[in-house]
Design a protein that fits this description.
The protein is of the alpha+beta class. It has helices spanning about 35-75, 80-120, and strands spanning about 1-5, 10-15, 25, 30-35, 125, 130-135, 145, 150-155, 160-165, 180-185, 190-195, 205-215, 230. Helix 1 runs antiparallel to helix 2. It starts with a strand and ends in an 8-residue tail after the last strand.
């Protein structure tokens, strides 16, 4: 599994690289973080805009409550003329319209804050699966750009075997067919099965690729090892 920085929109400075080659990682472990002065500023601006919009709504509501209290007081004591009461009603309507506009600003500001939070979340590059880091191309202080390869993680618990089969022999193979597997380097033998027969021949070698699943119960089996396959064309594995 290759870890890229494809979700980072701008080139950033990498920091807090916690893992190195040979380290085991779990899914969602933070492999490294990327500094983002630009996004930090955008986040502060978005939060400030949201705070100001909310204060504006509260100020208008306070003013509206004050006008309503004043109108009730004038009615109760009989001090207010019809004109005065009408003026208070007009003022209240204008403030209500201002509240609606301020609430729209709050809604937009909240949406902006969520967007910025989502983007800044991409600055933490996490492991896509459990595995071991076998290659690391970045160091603390390096500049990384979108699409740049950062690390390669190998999932040693779910290895598969790839093999090439001649097109004249493909008629003997079926999906889920049992395969006898030998890995000479560690004197290991087990049984697997054909997970997939890739339906695309190599025009140069006239071979097809097959993918074989097997249960890995030996800690000394690693990607790139040589394996021998023994196929009994009379057996077939049911899914």
């Amino acid at each position: 599994m290759m870890v890229h920085t494809t979700k980072n929109r701008l080139t950033k400075e990498m920091r807090n690289a916690t893992y190195d080659i040979g380290d085991k990682v779990k899914r969602e472990d933070t492999l490294f973080e990327i500094e983002s002065a630009e996004f930090d500023l955008l986040k502060e601006q978005a939060n400030l805009f949201l705070e100001q919009s909310e204060l504006m709504v509260n100020a208008y509501r306070t003013r509206l409550d004050s006008i309503k209290r004043e109108k009730r007081r004038l009615k109760r004591k009989g001090f207010g003329s019809a004109t005065d009461l009408a003026d208070l009603d007009d003022t209240a309507k204008n403030i209500e319209a201002s509240i609606d506009a301020a609430q729209a600003l709050v809604k937009n500001a909240s949406k902006k804050v969520r967007q910025i939070s989502t983007i800044t979340g991409y600055l933490e590059v996490k492991a896509p699966n459990d595995g071991i880091i076998v290659e690391k191309r970045i160091r603390v202080g390096d500049m990384v750009a979108p699409g740049m390869l950062g690390m390669i993680i190998v999932d040693l618990d779910h290895l598969q075997i790839e093999a090439e089969i001649g097109e004249s022999d493909i008629k003997y193979l079926k999906k889920y067919q049992d395969i006898q597997i030998t890995i000479p380097a560690v004197d290991y033998q087990t049984t697997g099965y054909i997970k997939a027969i890739v339906p695309s021949a190599n025009p140069m070698t006239h071979t097809f690729k097959i993918i074989i699943n097997f249960k890995k119960d030996n800690d000394h089996i690693f990607p790139g090892m040589y394996a021998k396959l023994n196929v009994n064309i009379n057996t077939n594995r049911d899914k």
